[in-house]
DNA sequence: GGTTTTTCCGCAAGCGTTTGCACATCCATT
DNA sequence: AATGGATGTGCAAACGCTTGCGGAAAAACC
């Protein structure tokens, strides 16, 4: 057991020069003579010297690490997002410290604590469903750790975020159905209080009322996104007074359950009844009766964009913008987009 | 802009005591008087003091961070795995530094470099498809950074790994089909040189030859896992001399493509032809003709187990087992398991 | 040859924390 | 009253690296 790992000190001793010279030589500092510079660099290579980042992190108060907190890593949406995040981070020479909250506020707080302790340079968060107290985010301000929220955004002022606007996609979806001749269009929405549900509904209303039909609340049903809930919602919609010829569903999974339900009711898919949904999961290629179209939310791009935004924020910070008094907040909205299948 | 963040020094000054006393008081060291101990702790709370982990990391040469390198975060298998990894790490008070190789050897090397620089305590890797030079892993030995491989294991001796044995599950699958009366059983396997393909084939041969049928190589076709490849393979199998009544496919995606192909050939699924596959993706619940059964590979559990193993390794290391001379290598095999659908 | 400029390098402080050791104080034991 | 053991606290080094500053040596000028 010798010196496991060579340090700058070791090099200095072997060459009989000072550590500062070695440090500068390694950084190609102009004030070091060519001769010593190459001597140092050669020995460094020979010893396989690698700077101890933890020392540098500590010394510079910067870790080149960004914390990422997501609700559920195994969900398709978030796993696509983390992929985009990692790619963007790697490109910007940052690394990703990862945590998943499992939609638990408690765990979210713990993770923030951990991230803070690790002195991440910045934080990327998609908040847990149940978070409605935002004090733990505030706590990061004194540490000067900027946060970029994405997808799931808390309703507080003065934050940076990246999100995807569902309204536009919803309007496109309805328009698409309209051009296909549908006039009675239903919607199976998510839980009423979810912001995502509200957006979809807004888009629905906006598209339906725009110089054509009027908004019939009976055509919109909320559900809890469980299979049972979806079945109930579908049945309610299809046995109602005005039976829709097309249905927009909260996401692809809902669509698939709804399709099954419709088939059990002896309806011909894409004939008696059409479906359009959100998310555009890869599985839609494989199902027997995929929705006709999906509103794509670009999770990869969202993650990527959020990361880029955060990194930009970090650059500014190190450029001497000592605090956020001159605060401009990034509010980046990606537009969702309807994607037709086959 | 004052002292953004309180340090131990700050507390010491305010209380007119030495930093060492503060440090010990904060750690409940027994040699500190109760009186000063509470004084310190109260002021610390009031100032919202939090230790600077980067300083501690540096000082202790330990980061409580484990590096994780996966080929593709957005793949269902790996996103389930990372979920298990994060959960296990969090439980053991470690955090996860994440990287994805996109199956590029180059990027894999870069990531290892980054992880090394960050001085992660240990590393968890599922190697890229194309990796066949393992020198970059060796480089970690002198840094005393243990590696646990999982799922995709390099073929080198003296390593720790966690993997899932596909043989057993394959045997179960064939047995299952056998009890259902099938005698001619085909297989659509992956690329020939993939270890995962070999294991499946081994299981297939083992089950087929065990006091029943004999192994007919014509019933096994390899494919490149693309949709086109799967279609070709399926057609070849179903138009062959001995037409199988059941087919085992490399994974669920292959199964879905194969099902489509079979249907185009006017075969009735689950009647003329049955399918069994691997992976057990959630989507199989939603497809019109899911495979009858899938061999589950427990990605979450694999990730979890690998992480636990790594953490155990780390404990031992800090317990003075200075190096791995007394090396016992963990080789942990989870058994795959057949899961019947509906 | 003296002066200025340039070139090159070392000293030392500092980042925040832990920890071995020495030291001081106090109380109890002889 | 001297000795001994607790009990509580401070000093200082160490972890590896960066960087402002000062200064020696070499090169350039008149």
Notes on the structure:
Chain A folds into three domains: 8-51, no CATH class; 63-164 and 299-335, Response regulator (Rossmann fold), CATH 3.40.50; 166-296, Rossmann fold, CATH 3.40.50.2300. Chain A is elongated, with a radius of gyration of 27 Å. A six-stranded parallel sheet of chain A has the order 2-1-3-4-5-11, sandwiched between helices. In chain A, strands 7-6-8-9-10-12 form a six-stranded mixed sheet, with helices on both faces. Chain A starts with 7 loop residues before the first helix and ends with a strand. With 342 residues, chain A is of the alpha/beta class. In chain A, β6, α9 and β7 (220-222) form a beta-alpha-beta unit. Chain A has helices spanning 8-15, 19-26, 34-47, 53-60, 76-91, 105-117, 135-138, 166-179, 195-209, 227-238, 252-264, 299-318, and strands spanning 65-70, 95-100, 122-125, 147-150, 160-165, 185-189, 220-222, 246-249, 274-278, 293-296, 331-335, 337-340. The longest helix of chain A has 20 residues, at 299-318. The mean pLDDT of chain A is 90. Chains A and B meet through α4, α5, β2, α6 and α11 of A and α4, α5, β2, α6 and α11 of B. β2 of chain A pairs antiparallel with β2 of chain B. The structure holds a DNA duplex (30 and 30 nucleotides).
Q: How many helices of chain A does DSSP assign?
A: 12
Beta-strand portion of chain A reads: 15-25%
Give the oligomeric state. homodimer
Radius of gyration of chain A, taken over Cα atoms and rounded to an integer in Å:
27 Å
CATH architecture of the largest domain in chain A: 3-Layer(aba) Sandwich
Biggest interface, and residues per chain?
A: A-B, 59 and 59 residues
Query: Can you give the helix content of chain A as a percent range?
Result: 40-55%
> In the CATH scheme, what's the topology name of the largest domain in chain A?
Rossmann fold
> Overall pLDDT of chain A, averaged?
90
Instruction: Give the domain tally of chain A.
Output: 3
Describe the global form of chain A.
elongated
Structural class based on helices, strands and sheet pairing of chain A:
alpha/beta
Biggest sheet of chain A, strands in spatial order? Answer: 2-1-3-4-5-11
Q: How would a textbook summarize the main sheet of chain A? A: 6 strands, parallel
Number of strands of chain A: 12
Unreliable sequence segments of chain A? none
Under CATH, the homologous superfamily of the largest domain in chain A reads Response regulator
- The SSE order of chain A reads HHHHEHEHEHEEHEHEHEHEEHEE
């Amino acid at each position: 057991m010798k010196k496991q790992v060579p340090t700058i000190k070791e090099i200095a001793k072997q060459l009989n020069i000072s550590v500062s010279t070695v440090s500068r030589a390694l950084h190609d500092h102009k004030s070091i003579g060519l001769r010593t510079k190459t001597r140092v660099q050669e020995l460094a290579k020979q010893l396989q010297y690698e700077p101890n980042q933890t020392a540098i992190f500590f010394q510079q108060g910067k870790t080149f690490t960004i914390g990422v907190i997501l609700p559920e890593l195994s969900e398709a949406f978030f796993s696509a997002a983390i992929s985009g995040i990692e790619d963007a981070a790697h490109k910007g020479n940052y690394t990703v410290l990862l945590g998943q909250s499992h939609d638990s506020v408690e765990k979210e707080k713990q993770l923030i604590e951990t991230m803070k302790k690790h002195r991440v340079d910045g934080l990327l968060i998609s908040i847990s469903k149940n978070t409605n107290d935002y004090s733990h985010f505030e706590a990061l301000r004194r540490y000067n750790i900027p946060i970029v929220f994405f997808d799931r955004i808390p309703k507080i002022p003065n934050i940076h975020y990246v999100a995807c606007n569902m309204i536009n996609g919803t309007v496109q979806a309805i328009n698409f159905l309209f051009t296909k001749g549908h006039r009675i269009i239903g919607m199976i929405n998510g839980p009423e209080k979810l912001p995502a549900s509200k957006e979809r509904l807004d888009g629905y209303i906006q598209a339906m009322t725009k110089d054509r039909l009027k908004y019939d609340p009976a055509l919109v049903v909320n559900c809890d996104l469980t299979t049972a809930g979806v079945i109930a919602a579908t049945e309610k919609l299809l046995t109602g007074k005005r039976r829709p010829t097309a249905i927009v569903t909260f996401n692809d999974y809902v669509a698939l359950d709804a399709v099954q339900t419709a088939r059990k009711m002896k309806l011909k898919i894409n004939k008696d009844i059409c479906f359009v949904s959100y998310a555009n999961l890869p599985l839609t290629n494989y199902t027997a009766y995929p929705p006709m179209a999906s509103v794509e939310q670009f999770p990869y791009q969202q993650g990527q964009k959020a990361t880029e935004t955060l990194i930009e924020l970090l650059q500014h910070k190190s450029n001497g913008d000592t605090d956020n008094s001159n605060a401009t907040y990034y509010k980046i909205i990606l537009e969702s987009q309807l994607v037709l299948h086959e």
